[in-house]
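Let's see one such:

===
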Amino acid sequence: MGRIRVTQIFPWLLPLRRRQRVFCFYEKMRRDGNRYAKAKLDRALPYEVFSSTCPLYNAETGFDMRYQQNKVFNLKLAAARLEGVAIGPGETFSFWQLVRHADSVTPYKSALTELDGRLQTARGGGLCQLSNLLFWLFLHTPLTIVERHGHAKKDFPEPPSDAPLGVDATVYEGWLDLKVRNETAHAYQIALSFSAAEITGSVRCDAAPEVEIRVRNENLSYCQRKDGIWEEVDVVRDCVERGTGKVLVSRVLYRNRCRIGYPLPDGVPVLPDGRRSHA
């Protein structure tokens, strides 16, 4: 049996515990010596490094679509704090440093989120779609990933996207952040926009990129374990010479692991526990 938390015995302590955790979360950042990006530019930097568009609505969640509408509402509140932000040389980007007070005037709505291993609704749910998109953009830059947390579980199939598997980034205020540090000599800028059905994100720079960065998967496998089916996949980054397409550097960034909470399509091989296969 796992350790029982005090808040499980006395659930009325949960709001107090959360406020304490959030306070310590920001106090630690205040004292950590990093310069956090916060300045917004009144113009777009001249060079687009990478851009990606993804659907806003997912009909495969199993929940009422009003929670998808609420998610979009929340995304727009948070995106307003991120749009146009520049990450200068020596600065660190923190998702929560920028989004912290996004709902101070207009409150977030209830949308889907995962809490204590269960998919449920909560105020401010759905912001992970924004952190997912930002992480996917950052992977196409020389920015250094300082903090990223993959989702422990996929509760429903993902909508169509240009992103490979395993490039998500979950966030939870007080516990999980998305951070990157700019160790280059150039500034990078976040741009976000919405259409009726899609969100588009791009990262821009004050200098033309010297190489093109491509991100892909290797060694995909699904394995049956006691607690369900797990997906494992390598996330690989290639630095490609512009004009020739020659791969200059290729390396595995990390191996992503998550539990699958929905039926896989017919024909997908699932290995018994203890075996490994590469697709």
